Amino acid sequence: MSRHPFLDQPGPLAFAHRGGAADGLENTLTAFGRAVALGYRYLETDVHATADGRLVAFHDATLDRVTDARGAIAELPWREVRAARVAGQEPVPLFEELLDAFPEARFNVDVKTSAAVHPLVAAIDRANAWDRVCVGSFSQARVDRVRALAGPRLATSLGTRGVAALRLQSYTGRFPASAAVEAAVCVQVPEHHAGLRIVDRRFLRAAHRRGLQVHVWTVNDRERMGMLLDLGVDGIMTDQIETLRAVLAERGAWPQS
Question: Which positions, given as ranges, span the membrane (predicted)?
Fold first, then answer.
């Protein structure tokens, strides 16, 4: 049973990673619109704060890799970031634009920097989007800061320390007490990390016993999607949004509600 409205949809959940990054237009309104048109209800994105505090949906710390501009987002004002074009075509959106453009969608948000924490919570509050945003990060400290500001209204996933603790519990049965871990509603992990397998039946049992859904990223291979679904994962994040849709359709799990 879901502990938060963010996860109140029947699973397994399909997440469009960066809106579906395979076509090169990652984290753009066009990418997210295409995913929603295909039937996706869960969208994954990342956020950074510009030098003047505007919150943008963008993965990298710099514009260099995916846009026709250069520079660190944290050192640039919004007027310069908004002039950049992803793949030379699409503007970098503000996170609030995504919330406004897709009011029925749920957003899984990786908060990339400490400077983005306050603008993110403020954006969610202005949009009253508490039920449709889940926040995670590689940094447990950033997740903790978001949680301290937002309280239980906001869904959060486990940070790296929590994931390590859960992996340990899956072997030992012991889990260290942590308010941050107790507050989480899901765990979002790669199938493998540093040559070690994370997602297996033991890990899933440990997560499910704690009421945590397990979402696996970033899975682009049809065979791996099928194997993970057979294993019992609760959600998959993918760049290959047509492929995941097809795999779920074959299992009678599409369209997503």
Answer: none
